[in-house]
Amino acid sequence: MADKIVILTGAGISAESGLGTFRDEGGLWAKHRIEDVATPEGFARDPALVHGFYNARRVQAASAVPNPAHTALARLQRDWPGEVVIVTQNVDGLHEKAGATAIHMHGELSGALCFACGHRWTAPPQMSPGEPCPACAAPTGRPDIVWFGEMPYHMDEIEDHLLGCDLFAAIGTSGQVYPAAGFVQGAAYAGARTIELNLAESEITGAFEDHRIGPASEVVPAWVAELLD
Ligand code: APR
């Protein structure tokens, strides 16, 4: 039976598609305060500011193009004889644009959520305060993004994949935000081999057996070729 591969991706895999990361030099968290734009309290305090932050990222992501790293992962999912599960912290939709499927543990910029009734719908390019919910009509639409202090999505499914995988890879994540930063420990505990692909060392580099250092658009296609060819 071919190995099951689980891959965690972070903002670094989309950096070469022109989308900013969070914690690199000049990253999103250097320009915006997390508590203002990425918490339920910030949204309650100033919904216009929060919608403005996600509207800008939604428009940018809509025109972003997958880079060779996204394309390589789609190739791996298509051609690997075993199961390949991508778990992404990213909300930019680039895995799907490259032809892959992914579990979105932090939600998606393309999604809107009603915080009154829980209904989900495709977000318009620009959302605004009092966005009406198509289901319950309440003015309670918000970006379908998991904010700090909220539970990431699909955690039970993700944990099952981690405990059943033979190879765990993390690509382009700084390893600073849990639970994602702890996935490598779970996978290793269950006996998986582990590899980190990143431009630089991360907070969790020491937890991986193997490493590929370089830009994702180079190291990810090379790693996929090692596996497939
Ligand atoms: N190729 C590979 N890795 C890269 C590249 C690149 N071209 N550019 C940057 N990186 C790496 C950085 O070295 C860093 O380790 O990508 C990582 C980016 O880290 P963060 O900006 O912290 O992004 P991420 O790890 O995805 O953040 C996790 O934090 O703010 C929350 O919800 C947000 O999903 C996000 C989570």
TrEMBL record:
Cofactor descriptive note: Binds 1 zinc ion per subunit.
Cofactor section: Zn(2+)
Active site: 106
Catalytic reaction list: N(6)-succinyl-L-lysyl-[protein] + NAD(+) + H2O = 2''-O-succinyl-ADP-D-ribose + nicotinamide + L-lysyl-[protein]; N(6)-acetyl-L-lysyl-[protein] + NAD(+) + H2O = 2''-O-acetyl-ADP-D-ribose + nicotinamide + L-lysyl-[protein]
Subcellular location: Cytoplasm
InterPro entries from the UniProt entry: DHS-like_NAD/FAD-binding_dom (IPR029035), NAD-dep_sirtuin_deacylases (IPR050134), Sirtuin (IPR003000), Sirtuin_cat_small_dom_sf (IPR026591), Sirtuin_class_III (IPR027546), Ssirtuin_cat_dom (IPR026590)
Record: residues binding NAD(+): 10-29, 89-92, 172-174, 198-200, 216
Domain Deacetylase sirtuin-type: 1-229
GO CC term (a single one): cytoplasm
Keywords for the protein's UniProt record, in alphabetical order: Cytoplasm, Metal-binding, NAD, Transferase, Zinc
Known function: NAD-dependent lysine deacetylase and desuccinylase that specifically removes acetyl and succinyl groups on target proteins. Modulates the activities of several proteins which are inactive in their acylated form.
Free-text note regarding domains: 2 residues (Tyr-54 and Arg-57) present in a large hydrophobic pocket are probably involved in substrate specificity. They are important for desuccinylation activity, but dispensable for deacetylation activity.
Name this polypeptide is given: NAD-dependent protein deacylase
Name of the gene encoding the protein in the UniProt record: cobB
